[in-house]
Every structure is written in structure tokens, then in C-alpha cells.
Specification:
homodimer; alpha+beta; Jelly Rolls; Arc Repressor Mutant, subunit A; five-stranded antiparallel beta sheet; four-stranded antiparallel beta sheet; 7 helices; DNA-binding (chains A, B); HTH_CRP (chains A, B); Crp/Fnr family transcriptional regulator (chains A, B); RmlC-like_jellyroll (chains A, B)
Chain lengths: 236, 236
């Protein structure tokens, strides 16, 4: 289902920060929105790409699959964030797939419309550079972690990134605000489901986290930071 | 040493592709060039950043160091490529360091100058998005390789990327056209110097590569592709 968007949906999106009302009206005139039910694929790796997507509501998982079927979770996208934009620069083809992990509303632009918008309003291109630059820095961090850190620290880093991105205070601590499986965590940290399960069980026994099916609560964020940063046990 | 650049140095740089002569003249007016001797540091991780660097001549290694001193080689930059640009989007601080691995000439812009250039000439911002987008896709590929592939394949992938980037035909095969140590390869593939040495020695015994101190020649690129893609030995 495709509907014409209301300009108010762009409010607070980093991609459109600093634009005036006339520019925002121009941006929505070129856009279409769509509702995507939980579990549906928004686009597949290798599909021909749109010029850009931004999430209005819901949560999207970006997954890359290797030639032999091995999956890596690239990131989770939350409300207000852009996604799928790399296709514009990768021969028009999505380098990874996107799946709705909650009911979603997205807004999208064709490649020609997004390019023309960036030329008319260079601030959009500068904003996009900041966003993609930040993601490049984050993936470089993950590469360094994966190259040099043992698995327990990588899982702690991945959980802390998710807390920063989508944490919400609950009575027991900080909850990661969307469905997150142990398999997702394994595919985010380059390890196996078995190792993630063993690590989370040990942390549960120590009272650091609480996890159920597709549900994680960090009870002691400071202790998780100590693991991620490899601080001596005394300071945990 | 800082000298005013000649507009001809921008020719063929992807960052400035599609600009007319007036725009190129504007770009060089805002720039400064500098010579950097082999072995010198151009900037350190954590230093306050410039708005952008582009390499006119030479070769630069971008290295990220973790809190405990573990290093990861992010990439090698060749003539015509931009580097150091992420600082503009990371609180003004370089997220990685840059070392000249050959005598270099670079051209650079302040953050204010680069932002103003992108606003006056949105094509520069769109070009930068394409470049940073391509690098993000490449680091995502490396993350997937590191998560899911055994070390021999990762070393083969790293060498093939360097061949695409800086390979030159020589009598014995394809030479990687800049000084590359086994330690560099270890820091590009998340493994140890010992493992890289053992792997290269095995490949040398099979006649696939030839390597000396800071020097690698691929004698049989197709055989290396077969290893990288995990094709059955029969087809090697």
C-alpha cells in the first residue's frame, strides 16, 4: 500500500535536519510511504534499489548473506533513521536485505528524486554523509573488535550499542526495545548461537541481564561496560 | 611544507568528478598541498581533523588502534583517493591514524572550506557519498568474511582487494605496487603474523605467490580467487 506522506513525518529525521519548510515540502512531494507488516521483507539483497528509505515507525533488520548462506546482521534501523541508501552507490543494487521485525511505516524516494533533492538542497547530502560516515566508523569499530577481542567482550559491545540505539528504562533495568533473538546476537558478533546462549546464561546467573525469547533486559549496564572495556573484575 | 596547488592535480579524482573548470578552480583556491616523507605520520588517531585530504602521489596506510594497543589496518589509500574525511562527521576528531608508506603529496581542506564547497557544488557531496558508501560496503564485506570465513580465505580476499586497488603487471604475475608487510596483512585479516607467514609460505611452495620483505607478487591470481571463493580444489 502506497500513500502520500504528511510533511510532519520528516520532523526529527537526521537526514533532513536543518531544512526549512519549503525544502521539507519539496522532499515529501517526491516521496511515497508504505506500511510493511512484521516479518515481511522490505527488499532483498541483490534487488534493484530505490534512492533511499527512511523509517517512520517500527524496526528493520539489515542482513547480509554470503555466497554460502552465512548471515551477518549489519544493523537494526529505528524510527527516524534512513536505510537502503547504499544501493544508489553500488550499481543500483542493494548490498544487503531488509526485514521488518515489527510493523513498520516507511517513506521512500526513487534514485532520480533523491539525487535531484540532494542537488537542490545540499544540506541533505551533507546530512547523509554524516550518517553514512558514522555508520562506517561503527562498522570499523566492529571489525576491530572482531579482529582483536574475545567473544564475551564483543557480545557486551553489541548489547551496549543496542542500548544506546533503542534502550528504554524499565523497572528491572534497561530493555532493548525490539525483538532480538540470540541468533541475531550471534550474527552481530561473528559467533555461534551456542556461544551466545552460554554467555547470556552466565550473565543471567550473575544478575547482569535477563533474557527471554526475542527479549533482552540489561539489569546492570555498568557491569556490562566493565566487560566490554575489559576492566579488572574488582571494578565491576 | 605547504604550497598552493595546481588545478590539474584534481584531474581524475572521483571526489571531484563531473565538476566544471570554474568549480575546480574554486576547489583548489580553498586547498593546500603538502609533501610528506615516507614513514611520517600525516595525522594521529584522536587528533583534531581537517575537512578532507586527497592523495596526489604516494601511498597512505589508515590504521585504527584499540584501547589496549591492538591495531587494525583499515585500508591503503592510493593516488587520487580521499582520506581522513570521517573526522568531519565524528566530532572533528580522526577515528584512525594515517601514515605515509611511500613519499607522498597530499592536498587538504579545512572543515569550513570543505563544507562550503559541498554547499556551493553539491556534486562534491554526492561524489563523497558514493566513495564513503563504497567503503562502507567494503568494510561490511570484511566484517562478514571475518565472522564466517576461515583465515586462509580472508588472506586471499585481502590480497585480491589490494590487487584490484594497486596491482601492476610484472613478468612473474601481478605485483602489489607498494610496501606491504606480513604484519599489515595480519592486521587486515584479524589474524597473527605467525598465521600469515605460515599461509604465505604454503602458497609460495605451491607457486601461487612470491613474497619478500614488504613485497608481494601474485603468480596465479585465478588460484587465489579459487581459495577466496572456496571453490573445490579440482577447479583450482
Amino acid at each position: 500500500m502506497t500513500i502520500a506522506p504528511d510533511p510532519a513525518v520528516l520532523h526529527g529525521m537526521p537526514l533532513f535536519a536543518g531544512l526549512d519548510a519549503a525544502a521539507l515540502a519539496d522532499v515529501v512531494r517526491q516521496a511515497r510511504t508504505a506500511r510493511i507488516p512484521k516479518g515481511a521483507q522490505i527488499f532483498a539483497q541483490g534487488d534493484e534499489g530505490a534512492g533511499g528509505h527512511a523509517l517512520i515507525d517500527g524496526r528493520v533488520k539489515i542482513v547480509q548473506t554470503g555466497a554460502e548462506g552465512q548471515q551477518v546482521v549489519i544493523r537494526f534501523i529505528g524510527p527516524g533513521e534512513m536505510f537502503g541508501t547504499l544501493a544508489m552507490f553500488m550499481g543500483g543494487v542493494y548490498p544487503a536485505g531488509a526485514v521488518a521485525v515489527a510493523d513498520c511505516v516507511e517513506i521512500r524516494w526513487t534514485p532520480a528524486a533523491m539525487t535531484a533533492l540532494m542537488e537542490r538542497h545540499p544540506r541533505i547530502a551533507l546530512n547523509a554523509l554524516g550518517i553514512i560516515g558514522g555508520r562506517l566508523a561503527e562498522v570499523q569499530d566492529r571489525l576491530r573488535e572482531l579482529s582483536t577481542q574475545r567473544v564475551e567482550r564483543r557480545i557486551a559491545h553489541a548489547l551496549l550499542r543496542l542500548v544506546r540505539q533503542a534502550g528504554r528504562r524499565v523497572e528491572a533495568g534497561v530493555e532493548i526495545g525490539f525483538p532480538l533473538s540470540r541468533q541475531d546476537l550471534a550474527e552481530m558478533t561473528g559467533t555461534t548461537l551456542h556461544t551466545v546462549s552460554r554467555t547470556l546464561s552466565a550473565w543471567e546467573a550473575q544478575g547482569l541481564v535477563e533474557s527471554g525469547r526475542q527479549h533482552v533486559v540489561i539489569r546492570k549496564p555498568h557491569a556490562l561496560v566493565a566487560i566490554a572495556e575489559d576492566l579488572p573484575p574488582a571494578s565491576r
